[in-house]
Design a protein that fits this description.
The chain is of the alpha/beta class. The protein has a single domain (3-190), classed as Alpha/Beta hydrolase fold, catalytic domain (Rossmann fold). The protein is built from 7 helices and 8 strands, in the order E-H-E-H-E-H-E-H-E-E-H-E-H-E-H. It has helices at 17-25, 41-54, 65-77, 90-96, 114-126, 154-158, 179-190; strands spanning 3-7, 30-32, 59-63, 80-84, 99-102, 109-112, 138-143, 165-168. Strand 7, helix 6 (154-158) and strand 8 form a beta-alpha-beta unit. Helix 4 runs antiparallel to helix 5. The protein is globular, with a radius of gyration of 15 Å. The relative contact order is 0.16.
Length: 191
Amino acid sequence: MTTILYIHGFNSAGTTFKSQALRTELPNYKIISPTFDYKQFDLALKLLRSTFITNKIDIVVGTSAGGFMALYASAKYHCKCIAINPVTHLTDTLKRFLGENQNYITKQKYVITEQDIEKCRRFEEDEFSKIVLTDENTRFLLSNDDELLGDHHYLEQKYPQCHHFKYFDGYGHRFTSIKPIVAEIKDYLKK
């Protein structure tokens, strides 16, 4: 059975709408969607690694901070990925949330500290900045109206070896439609 790992964004959880919708829309696929704790970034990386160790992942799909993780996983584990409105500088995003926060899904409250941001910065500098993406393993679904991250066209310059960039209007940062995601997964796995 084809296995898809869905990685949610920051302040979300594995039980998010997208993971549930993927299960509904793709009943013949195994969808794995654990909850990643981006505050404890080292634990998020351990969870990613253990998920790949215990499962044969055919494609990883990630939104926002999950897109960051999907890009990293694609390079590290040589798998296909679809990055949806990906964060490529997670440290900058986390800085916006310095202090008390609440997870949108679980409602759990927590605090982002300077130490949390520093752990993420070291990972970005030591590992993420060195990833090498391949065209055959990387696709991007991007909103033209991303209110959190802004214009995504810089990704084409950042990753010139990649050529699968699709832009959409009206979906915002959260990429509110599941249809293009499902269509992209189906198209990707046909090839």
